[in-house]
Amino acid sequence: AGDGARVPLLGAQDRGSQANKPTILGKVFGGGHDPDLPVSIPDMTAKTVREPEPQVPLGLEVVEKELETADAPNVRPSVPHELERYFRSSFTSWRLTRGKNMGMGALGKASLAPCGNLKGQITVQEADKHDAPIPLTDLYQPRPYVLRAYLLRGFSMQPKDSNGLVDCYVVMYTNGSKGNKQGLIDDVKNVKMKTLNPSFYKCYEMPVSLPGDSELVIEIWDWDKVGRNELVGRTIIDLENRQYSESWRDLPQKPIEIRQLWHPQSSITQGQLEMWLDIMTPEEATSIPKILISPPVPRNYELRVIVWNTKDCAFRDAKMSDIFVVCYPEGKAPQKTDIHWRSETGEGMFNWRMVWPVTLPYKIPRLKIQLWDKDLLNPDDVIAEASLNLAGLFKKAFKNEDTPSFSVSKQFIALTHPNYFNGTKAQGQVEISIELLTEAEARSKPVGLGRSAPNQHPELPKPNRPETSFNPLNPFSFISKVFWKQHRGKAIACCVCLLICVLIPIITMAIKLARSVVPI
């Protein structure tokens, strides 16, 4: 990087698309994680059920490819876990202990206690070959290096304060500098107050000697105004395993990694840390300036989604469904359409507008779409759902701030349900269009929710639903659209009979009354 260069970083919206692409890691490290390679940090993600990959709306596939190609020379690669999961270390570590497994320990218990680690390498070679994989002179002669740790953001920190938040700051040291104030970084002056997702965006630099300062410890602490500060969690990076790994040294750019934070008294992750690490010689550190990293300046937009129609909706009731649609961007309140009652064909007509304010960059750029069946006496049923990946749309808008609006053309989105056909067969389709406007453009073109005023940009007419679509709780609708249509003749006959039955007694009584009157 040149003097004062800024390198665009992959944000959270890009990590979602990178997380399920092992081929990217294969290109970077020459292969994925070796299942036989022991990993010191448990993979907590293996216990979660992964959602299906979100769909990319038509028209955005080309946008994403164009943005990816344009950013390729400048965007730093990213991996969704600790970097050591994806390359084989040149060394093996053995834990050294003192004491006995069994015997006369305190109260007859085992007295084993850790007292260090032994790191080494064992190779088996042919008798006439004695080449060491790593030159021994490199191992026996410690050399000075400069370590640069670029800390970007923290996620999902474990709360420590009574308000359910954390006042975060960074502590960093190597195993050879923990008692030495010159080698210890204690950044208590830069506390990120009252947050569970702190933004650091800072480069920490320290001198190290390798081999020697083998482990880098990065800790996140909670600052307390009264009382002692508390450890939130820590992550440990083996510097020797990286520096003496060819796959690490051959990387032109060290990838951003997501590291889990652990507490010695808990087996549950205490949060995640987004960062990357550079190890340089003193000469390289002098000639290469620190990369300037800073959080992107947020910008406000308005996301507008119009639900036009539905089709091929599966029936959850007998031969019909009372359809309505729910949409929401991740992290926003859901909005729903009115109800298309008594759909006998799986089709629904809505012409319904939904609006949300959003701030870019957006953490999880996904739009959830759900089809529901309204029930009057029981809980509503989910017919199907889909997740749309709007990363391309949001990235395009953020990169082109002078363009007032961006849109995704009207199209049908297929929705599935995991309990039907293993989530592989569509249970319905929703026709939507999407528009993203800058805050100024949205103010100049105001719109109302649903079909309410101001109904413009575009004007949404009331849907022309069939006569069989009505609210069964409305008695007038029931009489006019069902009873009258199916039993018109019988109703007329009954009315005539009732009229006759009422008129005959009246006429008879009138005649009797007239005869009983005596003329004067």
Keywords:
520 residues; five-stranded antiparallel β-sheet; 20% helix; alpha+beta
Which helices and strands occur, and which strands form pairs?
Elements: H1 12-18, H2 22-29, H3 61-71, E1 92-98, E2 113-120, H4 136-140, E3 143-155, E4 166-174, E5 185-186, E6 192-195, E7 199-210, E8 215-222, E9 230-238, H5 239-243, H6 246-249, E10 257-261, E11 271-280, H7 282-287, E12 299-311, E13 321-329, E14 335-336, E15 340-343, E16 348-360, E17 366-373, E18 381-389, H8 391-399, E19 405-415, E20 428-438, H9 439-444, H10 475-486, H11 488-516
Antiparallel strand pairs: 1-2, 3-7, 3-11, 4-5, 4-6, 4-8, 8-9, 10-11, 12-16, 12-20, 13-14, 13-15, 13-17, 17-18, 19-20
Task: Write up this protein.
The chain is of the alpha+beta class and 520 residues long. The chain is 20% helix and 32% strand. It contains eleven helices and 20 strands. Strands 4, 5, 6, 8 and 9 form a five-stranded antiparallel β-sheet that branches. Strands 13, 14, 15, 17 and 18 form a five-stranded antiparallel β-sheet that branches. A hairpin with a 5-residue loop joins strand 13 (321-329) and strand 14. It is elongated. The protein starts with 11 loop residues before the first helix and ends with a helix. Mean pLDDT is 79; it is low at 1-50.
